[in-house]
Amino acid sequence: MSKVTTLGQFIIERQADFPYAKGELSRLLRDIGIASKIVNREVNKAGLVDILGETGGTNVQGEKVKKLDIYANEQFISALKSGGECCMIASEENEELIYIDSEISSEAKYIVAIDPLDGSSNIDVNVSVGTIFSVYRRRSTDVPVSPDDVLQPGIRQVAAGYVIYGSSTMLVYTTGCGVNGFTLDPSIGEFCLSHPDLKMPESGTIYSVNEGYYVHFPEGVKKYIKYCQVEDAASNRPYTSRYVGSAVADIHRSLIKGGIFIYPSSAHVPSGKLRLLYEANPLSFIVEQAGGRASDGYGRIMELKATAIHQRTPVFIGSSAMVKKAEEFMLRYSPRN
Ligand code: P6P
């Protein structure tokens, strides 16, 4: 029986990765892990209790809000508030920033951007959903912290991760020293190290895009999709198409098997659909740390300037060879104006 390493043990063991930290980031990551287990419990029985269905409200994205979205948002906010290591939160479910101004948190070091339950439209049909989080160090010493402190480029993230509530529940995160995956063992209620030092395959044979919007895609995306579909045994084409409709699931598959996930700009979303702060940047940090590539079609997502907490960006994320090929098509057929 190989040694079981829980998330808590792993975080403590890897404390040495950040010599100047005094344990605050470790405690923040553990707080997120605990909230994830609470959300997981509700996601797993969503069909059994009246937590499904719509609240009738819509979130800042104008999307119908499922009760589980609100529940998950409340759990992560509560865990971050009581943990005392976070001074401000940007959440997909909240139009405005959440300032944690208790005496223990107003001077806390970290800021969290979070999508508490991404892909929630899939819950009713029992398809994987996810939580995505990004952690920044505050830059201002003001109390309360400056709102600009959450508008940092992705390259300044100190940690990022996702939880995928699927056939099993996994937490995958990075602090800039590689990527590690933990699977929830319900028998002991702990996330256990199951995928140490995850590396994304340099190439793959799966492309993931919602082709229902094909006619509205930029020419470069159309040409890349056709490239994926053309027979060429030498490069293992045609590729396979897989699209879950939950970015965490589509990108997790690419991380394990190789592949590319694309959500480009389109007529219905001129700047793309995924949000920079709490979807694209954290997913990009993880993918880059695993050896993959994360682009907006022209350059690194993590170098994009953040100007608004809910801003969107096109995403081409996955195996580096595949993303580079897609960027070639974008450069040639849809050059940036
Ligand atoms: P579409 C979920 O709502 C989400 O933000 C991502 O997780 C997912 O990749 C995308 O939207 C799906 O969008 O337009 O294909 O339904």
Automatic annotation (TrEMBL):
InterPro entries recorded: FBPase_C_dom, FBPase_class-1, FBPase_N, FBPtase, Fructose_bisphosphatase_AS
GO biological process terms, semicolon-separated: fructose 1,6-bisphosphate metabolic process; fructose 6-phosphate metabolic process; fructose metabolic process; gluconeogenesis; sucrose biosynthetic process
Primary location class: cytoplasm
Annotated binding of Mg(2+) 1, by residue: E92, D115, L117
Short name of one Pfam family: FBPase
Subcellular location: Cytoplasm
Fructose-1-6-bisphosphatase class I N-terminal domain mapped to chain residues: 6-196
Annotated Mg(2+) 2 binding sites: D115, D118, E279
Any one GO molecular-function label of the UniProt entry: fructose 1,6-bisphosphate 1-phosphatase activity
Listed EC numbers: 3.1.3.11
This protein's pathway: Carbohydrate biosynthesis; Calvin cycle
Alphabetically ordered keywords of this record: Carbohydrate metabolism, Cytoplasm, Hydrolase, Magnesium, Metal-binding
Binding site for substrate: D118, G119, S120, S121, N210, Y243, K273
Free-text remark on how the cofactor is bound: Binds 2 magnesium ions per subunit.
Domain Fructose-1-6-bisphosphatase class 1 C-terminal: 200-330
Reaction it catalyzes: beta-D-fructose 1,6-bisphosphate + H2O = beta-D-fructose 6-phosphate + phosphate
Cofactor: Mg(2+)
Broad EC category: hydrolase
GO CC annotations, alphabetized: cytosol
HAMAP family: FBPase_class1
Family: Belongs to the FBPase class 1 family.
Subunit: Homotetramer.
Protein name: Fructose-1,6-bisphosphatase class 1
Gene: fbp
